[in-house]
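User: Design a sequence. Structure:
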């Protein structure tokens, strides 16, 4: 099974392939932007795929944080630290849509 690139759960079933690869990049915690190592291809599970297709960034980020906590990743409980992290995650997720991706089954 492939890992979902959004929520990190091991049940990805879809692949988003960007049409505009040059515009796809990742932003790190300290704001450094680097090109994606995987040509901007994002794998998604059914749930995340629904949220991507409906452009529901808020729930997509909430889901990612929830599953990260389940998997033992230490996250801030709230406040500016969590807000900053949400912005970084949102910027990274937004690269999926910026590349005008096509969606295909894995
Ligand atoms: Zn997912």
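Assistant: Done.
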């Amino acid at each position: 099974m492939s890992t979902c690139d959004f929520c990190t759960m091991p049940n990805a079933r879809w692949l988003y392939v960007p049409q505009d690869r040059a515009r796809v990049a990742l932003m790190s915690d300290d704001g450094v932007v680097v090109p994606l190592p995987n040509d901007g291809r994002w794998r998604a599970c059914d749930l995340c795929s629904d949220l991507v297709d409906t452009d529901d960034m808020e729930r997509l980020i909430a889901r990612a944080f929830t599953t990260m906590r389940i998997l033992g990743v230490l996250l801030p409980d709230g406040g500016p630290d969590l807000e900053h992290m949400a912005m970084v995650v949102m910027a990274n997720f937004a690269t999926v849509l910026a590349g005008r991706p096509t969606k295909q089954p894995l």
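The mean pLDDT is 85. The radius of gyration is 13 Å.
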